[in-house]
Design goal:
single chain, 82 residues, alpha+beta, Alpha-Beta Plaits, two-stranded antiparallel sheet, 2 helices, 18% helix, electron transfer activity, 3 iron, 4 sulfur cluster binding, Fe-S_cluster_ET, metal-binding
């Protein structure tokens, strides 16, 4: 799984570091460091971290929602087909 954080959007709220501390960490008060190639066993924590980002600065390629079904990506809205 590949992660990308838009560091221009990131405001240092640290929700990701709280929810997935093995992948995200704060360096100082506002600088985020992260592993862009997160391990597969962190999938659920990463999904929560991506969803919790208040400024939607995190995207993850290959991340599925908690049901195991592919969900809409960041910035996309689920459609009922109408």
């Amino acid at each position: 799984m590949r992660l990308v954080v838009d560091l221009n959007k990131c405001q240092g709220y640290a929700q990701c570091a709280f929810l997935a501390p093995d992948v995200f960490a704060m360096h100082g008060e506002e600088s985020l460091i992260y592993n862009p190639h997160a391990p597969e066993e962190q999938r659920e924590r990463l999904a929560r971290a991506v969803a919790a980002c208040p400024v939607q600065a995190i995207t993850a390629d290959g991340l599925e929602d908690f049901t195991g079904e592919p969900g809409p990506g960041p910035g996309q809205v689920a459609s009922d087909g109408r």
